[in-house]
Design goal:
Blueprint lengths: L2 E6 L5 E6 L3 E4 L5 E4 L4 H12 L4 E2 L10 E3 L2 E2 L2 E2 L4 H6 L4 E4 L10 E3 L3 H15 L4 E5 L4 H12 L5 E3 L9 H6 L8 E5 L7 H9 L3 E4 L7 H4 L2 H8 L1 H8 L3 E5 L3 H6 L7 E3 L9 E5 L2 E5 L5 E7 L4 H13 L4 H10 L8 E5 L2 E5 L6 H13 L5 E6 L8 H15 L3 E5 L14 E3 L2 H10 L6 E5 L14
Parallel strand pairs: 5-6, 6-9, 9-10, 11-13, 11-14, 12-13, 14-15, 15-16, 21-25, 22-23, 22-25, 23-24
Antiparallel strand pairs: 1-2, 3-4, 7-8, 17-18, 18-19, 20-21
C-alpha cells in the first residue's frame, strides 16, 4: 500500500505526495513490476472527479468528449506535453505528473500518471459487485474472450475487453469502462515477463478465471518455457489466494496438473468433466457435439479453437446460460481481425491468421491445414518475433514440421525464416513482403487453400490483395 496525501495548491490543482510501500512481483532477472495502491481517502478524490467524466482517454487522437485524460510516459514520448491539447479537444480534466504542465484547474497533478490510472481502476473495480472473469494464455486469448462474451450475452449484460487491451495500460482502461449497468465482465490479460499477470490481477481482482493454454509465445522475453508456465499460472495463484473459481481444460497436461491446486476446479471438455463436448471435424470449419447432444456447425476455422469453444460453453453452463442459446451463440460467432478468418477469393480459399504468431500457434495452424482435405495446400509464413536467442531454432523447428507434413508449396518471408531452409530447401524465401508480393503478382496462385500466418510486425495480411 502506498499512502497518498493530496494537497490543494494554486489553480485548484491536487498535488500527490508518495510515502513508499510497494506491492511487487519479481522475475528471475530481477525485473520488477510495481503497482502502488493509495489509501481510500486519497484515491477517492480522484474517483469522485472520474465519476463526473464520460470515461478515460490516453490518446489525444481519440479523445472522448468530457473524459479524464491521463498523461502517460513512454520510451519515446511524454504525454504531459499533450495534456493541453487533450483539454482543447474536449477532455474535461487532464491528469499530469509534471508540475510544468499543471497550468489551470483542469489539471490534476499526481506522482505518476500510469500508477494513478492503475489505482483508479482498482478502486473502481472494488466498487463493482459483479463477477469478473480473468483469462490469459499463450494462444487464443482474444478468440476465447469473444466466444465467452457471445455466450454470456445470451443471459447477461456482459462487458468484455475491447480488442487486445490486455496489458498494464489496457487492463485498467478496460476496468474503468465497466459501467454500473453490467452484470458480468470478462477481462483479458497478456504478458511477456514473469510478474505481469500477477500485477494485472491486483488491478482487475478476478473472481473467476481460466488459462487458454500455455505455449511458446514470447519465449525469448520470458527467458525460457518454465518462466512462461510460471507467469501464466499467476492468474491461478491469485484465484487460489482469493477463493476464486477456476475452469480448466482437462485435455491440456500442464493445465490439468494445475487443477490439483484447487479445491473444486471445473473441468472441460472430456467425458466425466463438468462440461463435456466432442470434437467432430474441422474442414475448414469446426463441427462438434455439444453436451446436450446437438451437433453444432461453427464458422470458426482450426481444430485448435475447439478448446476455446468448450471453455466458453463450460463457463456459460456455470453461470446458467441456457444450453440451446449458448450453442446458438457459438453458431453465430464470426471470427474477424485476421484471427482464423476464412476468405474466399477467386479460385482460392485463404485462411487468414496473420494477426500474430508464435511457435505454438504456427505449428497448430500448419497441423490443421495438413489435416484438411484440400487438393492444393499452400503455406505463406512470415517471421515469428520476440523469440530472442531461441529464434533460429524455433524457425528451423517449423521447417522440420513442414517437411514432415509433406508440404510442397511453401513461401517464407523475413530473415528469421532463413534457418528453416535447412529443413525445406525447396521453399521459396523472400527477405521482404514486397518481394513476395511481386512474385505472387507475376505467378499467381490458383485453386489453392492458402494459410497466411506471421507475427504482427510483418503485416502479412496485405498480401491477400494479390492472392
Amino acid at each position: 500500500m502506498t499512502v497518498y496525501v493530496l494537497k490543494k495548491i494554486s489553480f485548484n490543482v491536487y498535488k500527490v505526495n508518495v510515502l513508499k510501500f510497494t506491492l511487487m512481483a519479481e522475475c528471475e532477472e530481477q525485473t520488477v513490476f510495481k503497482i502502488k495502491f493509495a489509501l481510500m481517502t486519497d484515491i477517492q478524490k480522484l474517483y469522485l472527479t472520474y465519476l463526473k467524466c464520460n470515461g478515460v482517454s490516453t490518446d489525444t487522437r481519440q479523445i472522448i468528449p468530457g473524459s479524464m485524460f491521463f498523461s502517460l510516459k513512454g520510451p519515446r514520448f511524454n504525454a504531459n506535453a499533450f495534456a493541453g491539447e487533450a483539454l482543447q479537444k474536449g477532455a474535461a480534466y487532464a491528469v499530469v505528473d509534471d508540475t510544468a504542465f499543471a497550468t489551470s484547474d483542469k489539471f490534476i497533478l499526481v506522482e505518476d500518471g500510469l500508477q494513478s490510472l492503475q489505482q483508479l481502476a482498482n478502486y473502481h473495480r472494488n466498487k463493482l459487485k459483479i463477477p469478473v472473469i480473468g483469462l490469459t494464455g499463450s494462444n487464443g486469448k482474444t478468440t476465447s474472450k469473444e466466444l465467452l462474451y457471445a455466450v454470456l450475452s445470451r443471459k447477461f449484460k456482459t462487458f468484455a475487453t475491447k480488442g487486445n487491451l490486455n496489458n498494464h495500460i489496457g487492463v485498467p482502461l478496460s476496468v474503468l469502462s465497466i459501467g454500473s449497468s453490467y452484470d458480468i465482465a470478462v477481462i483479458e490479460m497478456g504478458a511477456n515477463h514473469v510478474g505481469e499477470i500477477a500485477a494485472l490481477t491486483k488491478i482487475a481482482n478476478p473472481t473467476h478465471g481460466f488459462i487458454t493454454n500455455i505455449g511458446r509465445a514470447h519465449i525469448g522475453m520470458f527467458g525460457g518455457f518454465e518462466n512462461i508456465v510460471r507467469a501464466k499460472s499467476e492468474l491461478f495463484q491469485y484465484l487460489i489466494e482469493h477463493d476464486g473459481q477456476v475452469f480448466i481444460n482437462s485435455q491440456n497436461p500442464i493445465l490439468n496438473n494445475m487443477a490439483k491446486r484447487f479445491k473444486s476446479p471445473l473441468l472441460y471438455p472430456a467425458m466425466g468433466d463438468y462440461y463435456h463436448a466432442d470434437f467432430i471435424s474441422s474442414d475448414p470449419y469446426i463441427k462438434f457435439r455439444a453436451e446436450n447432444g446437438d451437433e453444432v456447425q461453427t464458422k470458426l476455422f482450426g481444430a485448435y479453437n475447439f478448446e476455446n469453444i468448450a471453455a466458453a460453453l463450460c463457463i456459460g453452463k456455470f453461470f446458467g446460460v441456457d444450453s440451446n442459446k449458448a450453442n446458438q451463440a457459438i453458431v453465430e460467432y464470426q471470427p474477424e481481425n485476421m484471427r482464423s478468418q476464412v476468405v474466399k477469393k477467386s479460385s482460392n480459399t485463404i485462411i487468414l491468421d496473420a494477426y500474430n504468431a508464435n511457435p505454438s500457434s504456427m505449428a497448430a495452424a500448419i497441423e490443421n491445414l495438413s489435416a484438411m482435405k484440400a487438393t492444393k495446400k499452400v503455406l505463406i509464413l512470415g517471421d515469428m518475433f520476440e523469440l530472442e536467442e531461441e529464434a533460429e531454432q524455433e524457425h528451423r523447428n517449423i521447417g522440420e514440421l513442414i517437411r514432415r507434413k509433406g508440404f510442397q508449396s511453401v513461401f517464407l518471408v523475413g530473415s528469421l525464416f532463413k534457418s528453416a531452409l535447412i529443413e525445406i530447401p525447396n521453399a521459396k524465401h523472400f527477405e521482404s513482403k514486397q518481394l513476395l508480393m511481386e512474385e505472387l503478382t507475376k505467378s499467381p496462385l490458383m485453386d489453392s487453400t492458402i494459410l497466411v500466418k506471421a507475427s504482427r510486425g510483418i503485416g502479412l495480411e496485405t498480401i491477400v490483395g494479390v492472392l
